[in-house]
Design a protein that fits this description.
It is a single chain. The protein is α+β, with helices and mostly antiparallel strands. The chain is 45% helix and 13% strand. It contains 15 helices and 8 strands. Helix 13 (322-345) crosses helix 15 (426-438).
Length: 442
């Protein structure tokens, strides 16, 4: 056979001479070459045959996890792992072994279901929102390091915080949430009152009532007025109805911008004016409140209506920071003597005989004990708003949770259903609980 196809690879063991003897030299001579013959050119090495498989890498060299052998455990061991499995504390192998066993053992499956249900009861649902006190703590830390040139007065801090929290709730609302129905609740006389609106309508309500503070500070009234010097004698509810009716179409997400701008303007303005104008009167129609109390009142209503909105969209909402909650409760406690007097003038008070006392003198008192982080104790004069509460003249004692009392004052809890500890004069206690509910309004 001639040509290169006759060559075989040289392996260095003397097989070349045997091939030459069998097939002959490529030049036609015999396989034995003479002494003077030149050495032959070595043939090229052919590529490896495709039929020869390439070496395979071991799984240990790939970095991939080795296939785990299934864990085989006895029934007593698997049963003892059910508690850890229910708490999701088993390893992956143990979890697989337990779950495979549950498909074969009815008794263990029943026990596992009971344990999982018990674990569910132990876990409290948590809000996705941050702790309401976190913002206050962060601001305090920042302000301690770099005090502001123009600080926000302490009596306006709760309004600043509650409007920021409500705005954070609103920022991700879509059209469906803005049109979600909301039922506003308050208490009048001897019964509850309600008014249906939407989330956007609630924000419009806050715009209208916050406008009372804006007018007192010399800012623009969101409702507008023909005579800026004329006192607005409309109640907050009447202002709200007028603001709602002024809109040709139902309110939408567009109300958020004007509301937020108004809240920023109010906080900025009271900060520039300083703590001095805290006694500036703010008209609520039938009555006035000092500016410092009006800002607390607006913070309280912002929180209450934020909870209304959160309930409408099925979202958790935490109470204010404890110090802000305490200030709101303190305002309600200070307003209770006037509320008691107003109910008596309307013929709604208890028929018991009152003891008239001079202004500034001690008289019959009720000890209002509010439990919780925002709580405290207040002595409420019962016979006259001008009297002074006195422990020596205490005739009744009532105790409520801080959030429960706020919801009573917001008209969200009927006075008959308030979870209160009571001791002493029942008529006095009833009067105070109903007076607290009468502080509410739309």
């Amino acid at each position: 056979m001639s040509g290169t196809d006759g060559f075989q690879a040289y392996d260095g063991d003397g097989e070349e001479d045997d091939d030459r003897q069998r097939h002959g030299a490529p030049d036609g001579t015999s396989g034995a070459r003479g002494a003077d013959a030149p050495p032959p050119t070595p043939p090229p090495t052919p590529p490896p045959s495709a039929r020869i498989p390439l070496p395979r890498a071991s799984v240990e060299d790939t970095g991939l996890p080795l296939p785990a052998a299934p864990l085989r455990l006895e029934h007593p061991v698997l049963k003892s792992l059910l508690g850890a499995w229910a708490l999701a504390a088993c390893s992956a192998e143990e979890t697989a072994a337990v779950e495979e066993h549950l498909g074969d053992c009815g008794d263990c499956a029943d026990e596992a279901r009971r344990l999982r249900e018990a674990v569910g009861l132990l876990q409290r649902p948590e809000s996705l929102d941050l702790d309401p006190g976190l913002r206050t703590r962060v601001l305090e830390g920042c302000l301690d390091r770099r005090p502001p040139h123009i600080p926000v007065p302490a009596w306006a801090a709760s309004y600043d915080a509650e409007t920021a929290r409500l705005d954070a709730l609103l920022q991700d609302f879509g059209d469906a949430e803005w049109h979600a129905p909301v039922r506003l609740r308050w208490y009048r006389g001897e019964g509850s009152q309600t008014r249906r609106t939407t989330v956007a309508g609630v924000i419009a309500h806050l715009v209208a009532v916050d406008g009372l503070v804006a007018v007192a500070l010399g800012l623009d009234d969101p409702l507008g007025t023909d005579d800026p010097d004329k006192r607005d004698t409309r109640t907050p509810g009447e202002r709200t109805e007028a603001y709602w009716e002024a809109a040709r179409l139902p309110r939408t997400r567009s109300v958020r911008g004007p509301w937020r701008e108004q809240t920023h303007t109010l906080v900025r303005t009271v900060s520039f004016t300083g703590a001095g104008p805290g006694t500036l009167p703010v008209s609520y129609g039938p009555f006035d409140l000092p500016l410092r109390d009006a800002m607390l009142d607006r913070a309280f209503e912002c929180w209450v209506h934020a909870e209304d909105i959160a309930d409408a969209v099925d979202y958790p909402y935490a109470p204010p920071a404890p110090r802000h909650l305490h200030a709101m409760i303190d305002l309600a406690a200070r307003l209770l003597p006037q509320a008691l007097d107003a109910r008596r003038r309307a013929g709604l008070g208890a028929p018991a005989e009152r003891r008239l006392v001079a202004a500034g003198a001690p008289g019959r008192s009720l000890r209002l004990e509010i439990e919780g982080e925002g709580g405290g104790q207040w002595l409420i004069p019962l016979d006259s708003p001008a009297a002074v509460g006195s422990a020596a003249h205490e005739v009744a004692h009532v105790a409520l949770d801080d959030v429960e009392f706020c919801r009573l004052a917001a008209g969200h809890v009927p006075p008959e259903e308030a979870a209160a500890g009571q001791l002493g004069d029942r008529e006095a206690i009833r009067d105070v609980l109903f007076a607290a509910a009468s502080l509410s309004r739309m």
